[in-house]
Specification:
This protein has helices spanning about 1-10, 20-35, 50-65, 70-80, 80-105, 105-115, 125-140, 140-160, 165-180, 185-195, 200-225, 240-255, 260-275, 280-295, 295-315, 315-325, 330-350, 355-370, 375-390, 395-405, 410-415, 420-435, 435-445. It is mostly helical. The protein has one domain (about 80-300, about 320-455).
Amino acid sequence: MQEFRQDTYHAQPSALGLVPFFVFIVTYLGTGIYLELVGVKMGFYQLPGPVAASVGVASAFLLFKSDLNQKFNDFLAGCGDKNIMTMCVIYLLAGAFAVVSKAMGGVDSTVNLGLTYIPVEYLAAGVFVIAAFISTAIGTSVGAIVALGPIAVGLAQQSGLSMPLILAALLGGAMFGDNLSIISDTTIASTRTQDVAMNDKFKINLYIALPASLLTVVLLLIFGRPESVVPLSVHDFQVLKTLPYLLVLILALLGLNVFLVLFVGVVLSGGIGLYYGNFTLLSFGKEIYNGFSNMQEIFLLSLLTGGIAFMVTREGGVAWVISKIEKLIVGPKSAKVGIAALVSVVDLAVANNTVAIVIVGEITKKISVKFGVDRRESAVILDIFSCIFQGLIPYGAQMLILLGFAKGSVDFLSVLPLLWYQGLLGLLTLLYIFWSAYSAWVLKSLTPKTTGAQA
């Protein structure tokens, strides 16, 4: 990601550099909004995201004046960025785990186990809490969504609960861990770019995220009740088939690498499926490939948006946004709001919260020093607002994968108003920024300032 950061600083600000991003957004969202208005079901997903991104890429090649070979090199550098490729590998493993586990009956057994022992009125809150635990443990919202997505959809279908509400609860819990986990890429990026200790960032973050999550649980307990509550009944399930999900949860809580967690999950699900005769060794391999294929759209979209992000940054588009926001800053509070706006806008542009933090990290550090903002707070604000917007945009990996599990039964607009955690997290962060007494108390409760090198 070093290339993103260097080019952010040295490129001359240019509004023209943002045009490919706007072309992508207008093509993707504009088509979706138009189709929704004329009554097309799932209008936002009629035009595949990679196609819209390709239009943005084409506009970058047409508009930017650098040498054609340089433009290809810039585009490929963005596609091949370490963070982009890391996410793509996670997509493949996550897709394989989801498909193999479902093929051997793991989803059905886990859903039936939950319906047997958990009162239906607690299921929505339970999905949020479990997703929060998993994402915090493995440090990735995508991994949590993939692990729980099929189960959440099954619970909604069989319990009579609102599907959009269950999906929103899952996405909120997943973003909780993405923001808070000490092994999350966003946490690592925010603390390293601000040169602060990870444990200090975690503590400040917890003072904001924990109240937001508790309020979300309360709302889900109040509004996550079905119209008619049915008594608990026994559903058919095999405990052995639920083990892959349990193992993934345990390994995640132990802090194992997300690649290893998902790989072990795939192998265990395959072994159980072979034991029960759900598939042969050859069909096991085919199911793995089916899982890979299911992630084709998000895989391609991540590559293409990575390429656009790099080209836009090189041409000064991000530098232009930064220059405009800097002009609005007059003191510490406006500086904090400016940092929040900066990382939010960039996340909207690149659809990757880690990339967004890396792009604006160094300028955020300079803003903090210039206007007297504690860099531990700037790290928290960077992480929180990048995760808020990543958990809201319809073309982000999290939302695309989540709605993919619903198979066309739910659209983005039905989920968006129910994303209570993201909304509460944003409101409480703004409260933290403007309530000086509370922020001062939080900072006073920490140890003396330490640098990232000491984390």
